[in-house]
Design brief:
The complex is a heterodimer of chains A (447) and B (308). Chain A has 447 residues and is an alpha/beta fold. Chain A has helices at 5-27, 41-52, 71-80, 93-101, 109-115, 117-120, 123-127, 151-157, 165-177, 194-206, 208-215, 224-238, 246-249, 254-263, 275-278, 327-338, 341-351, 371-381, 390-393, 396-410, 416-432; strands at residues 32-36, 61-65, 87-90, 130-131, 134-135, 138-149, 181-183, 266-272, 294-296, 310-320, 386-388. In chain B, a hairpin with a 7-residue loop joins β1 and β2 (72-73). Classes of the chains: A alpha/beta (447), B mainly alpha (308). Chains A and B meet through α3, α4, α13 and α20 of A and α13 of B. Chain A: It is found in: Cell envelope.
Chain lengths: 447, 308
Amino acid sequence: MIISRRNFLILSGAAALTPVLASCGSGSGGGLQYWGAFQDQQQQDYFKKERVDAFRGSAQVRMTVKPNDTIDQLTQTALAAGTGPDLVLTPGPAQVAAYAGAGYLLPLEQYSQKYGWDSALASWALEASRVDGKLVCLPAGYETMMLIYNPATLEQHGWKVPTNRTEFEAICTEAKAKGLMPVAAGNADWRAASEWWVTFALNHYAGPDAVYSALQGQTPWTDPVFADAINLLSGYYQRGWWGGAVDSYFTNTFPNLYAALASGDAVFMITGSWATSEILPYFGAPAGNDATWDWAPLFPLRDGVPAEVWDLGIGQTLSINAKSANPDAAAEYLNFLETDPKRQAQGIAEASLQPAPVHLSEADFPASVDERLVRLYTKLSNAATIGYTTWTFWPQQTDTDLYTNFDKVITGQLSTQDYLAGLDGVFRNELAARKVPPAPTPTGLAR
Amino acid sequence: MSTATAPPVAARPAAAHARRGRRRSGLARRRAVIAWAFMLPLIGVNALVVLGPSLFAVYYSFTDWNGIGGAQWVGLANYAELFGDADFRNALWHNVLWTIFFLVVPMVMGLFGAYALTRIRRFRLVFRVAYFLPYIVASVVTAAIWENLLSPDVGVGRILQVNFLGSQTLALPTVAFVNNWAWWGFLVVVFLAAMQGVSPNLYEAAALDGAGPFRQFWSITLPSIQPTFMFLGLMTIIWSFLSFDYVYILTQGGPAGATDVLSTLLYREAFASLRAGYASAVGIVMALISGLVVAAYLVIRKRKDWAV
């Protein structure tokens, strides 16, 4: 078949326009656009079935799956271009503050009143979701720090789960002498992982009251209580308790650490609740061994710090795009995603999804759920005292300096005093620039 | 009438010239228009993805900007902070060390590898392919292979009891070694192509005069491929200041900043600290360094009258 030049040009133009028009159509057809990123295919399939297709609201939801490591940049680019999904997923309050400052997010106060989010969601979560006093997001998933261990390893060596610093240090000393890794830790896969342990030291040595006071700008980070916390943690590294040795710490990968915990070569892991799903392939049938794992709350490192402090973090937030053509439907979908405790519990049980901060009781979970997860989330819902994860409540630059420079403390390049002085200087600047995310008082998940 | 209206004899060639000239200039104009028509899409794309962002980067380097929304003009504050920033100085120093390494090790390996290949007749193609192969393997694959090979748990590191990527002193040379493994084969192929352009008569004459292989390499090969050598040296300096992938994949700038280079610092400032304005200033300094190197090369090239 011979095509004339004119026809060729017409056909080419039509071909080029088709996807453009198609995309225009999809954006303006009254449906809601949702961009999601998932840990694995099973999680994605579950979300599609139970959280997208199951929504019977005033608009149909269309989900586009983005890669986990680039969804934030893609969202940022789309919002800057005046487009993007109706519901905006972010990695936490610091990003929310930046988006809200640029006017990309719709204030949610009217929807909060309409749907009763004040009573459905934990007050700390709503407090942490405000920018300049306005509610601009809802936490889509929250997490906490915890102690994970292999019960068989403890039993084999005659140890018990530590409930205070003395017990913890006694086990670490003995474990190190036996050639074991006392705490499975490393940051080869994720350099920022160092902040998990700084979070532990600050909240469980200095205590949540001191941390809260510092986050309000009332106590400087150079205060001796923080210096003692960092010195204590740095000392653990020097003794080879964290990751076996300082140089090993920098090359330990998470799969190796989980495997070491399963095999009994490592005793404890101080990590976040996200590990409860990551750890599964290394224990029991999936790994071809009979190893099991369990968890316990993190213990205080100093007298005067509450016995149980739940360091809370917000892993994801959801907002409504200011350019959304259908904000009412977006709010309706947001309410669907966030507020039903049974839906949250089912997500934990069936797809290891982080729950929204709703109050969960045992009755909310399906019968098939892992008992350890029920225990975790019901205890978390009833927490009396909360701590502050650095990646949620610290402003962005202070947080980056916190983990990059902590590595210099443990390698001896930087003294604790210089480290904290530098941190305090950056924090003061960000506080003055109103970049510090709002922090709730350390009074738990009270509504 | 016809005589009266006819132009003077002397004027005829001039008029013809003028007509031919007009035709030629019309033709030249048409050719220029066509050439520009072909060039325009390229210029448009270039302005959109190179010139525009470059100018914006210069602007943002003078602002406090988080990469989202509006920027606040801060003048030279980012540059002032840059030169007092220990992390910047540390990263810059690592770039200097990196550049020295890549100007010496792979260049020497590439030169001798290429020269060795010119001396053999059999399996030359096999060696060329073997040397070049690592260059076309994705950096993420190469890095993953070497990460496992050097691992202190399962690899050479375990046998030698050395933690190559966890050591403050060994991490940077180790990353440079891995990058060089993938890089030097490329230099072999380029140098070989340049060496094949050297007249065989020169080597025959030198051999007759009793010059050995090393003497021939020193006195004939090296001077003959000098422009290629200098060009690759120039590109090595520029690429060394832009190096990112191997460092980021293998160490992300760690342990404790031991492998931080300007590009990893820039990335961290822009995407972790959300300081896109400051990161732009780092980028501008990187561009200035490359610009200085190119300018120096152009001056030398003009003086020496090189073709490349």
